[in-house]
Amino acid sequence: MEKRIINPWQWQDERSYVQAVEVKHAESTLYCSGQAAVHADGKSSTGDMKSQLTEAIQNLEKVISEAGYECKDIVRLNILTTSSTEFFACFDIFQNWIAKHGIKQATTLFEVKVLFETLKVELEAVAVK
């Protein structure tokens, strides 16, 4: 598989995403449902944004690894949040996770009125290998 990053500018680098990712000769593609801070028992978190973002990342990692992929295989990552202000207050958690795994992904952030139950953030990913 080949991945080519397309970045006509540099400003997106400090925001931890790329403008586009071209994938050629992929063996397989994994489409992940939005992962949020839902505990193993199926109960939604009532925690703050920071704890929910951390758990959403952990849940996404679990789904990706269970499927036989790695986080570095993520090429598309949509972020849905009920508060972009709260999300950006803990953006360093997201950026550190992206850097730790060397993820180069196209991203769109959506601020939505509501997510399921008490959830504040959801991560929806596509990975290729």
Textual characterization of the structure:
There is one protein chain. The protein is 27% helix and 29% strand. It has three helices and seven strands; from the N terminus they run ββββαβααββ. The strands form two sheets. Strands 3, 4, 5, 6 and 7 form a five-stranded mixed β-sheet that branches. Strands 1-2 form a two-stranded antiparallel ribbon. The chain is of the alpha+beta class and 129 residues long. It has helices spanning 49-66, 84-89, 91-101, and strands spanning 2-6, 20-24, 29-31, 35-36, 74-81, 106-111, 121-128.
Which features would summarize this protein structure in a list?
129 residues; alpha+beta; five-stranded mixed beta sheet; two-stranded antiparallel ribbon; globular
Radius of gyration, Cα only, in angstroms?
A: 14 Å
How much of the sequence lies in strands comes to 25-35%
Distance between the termini: 6 Å
Note the overall shape. globular
Please estimate the helix content: 25-40%
Mean pLDDT: 96
The number of helical runs is 3
Order of helices and strands: EEEEHEHHEE
Main beta sheet strand tally, sense and closure: 5 strands, mixed
Q: Stretches where pLDDT falls below 50 for ≥5 residues? A: none
Structural class: alpha+beta
Per DSSP E runs of 2 or more residues, the count of β-strands stands at: 7
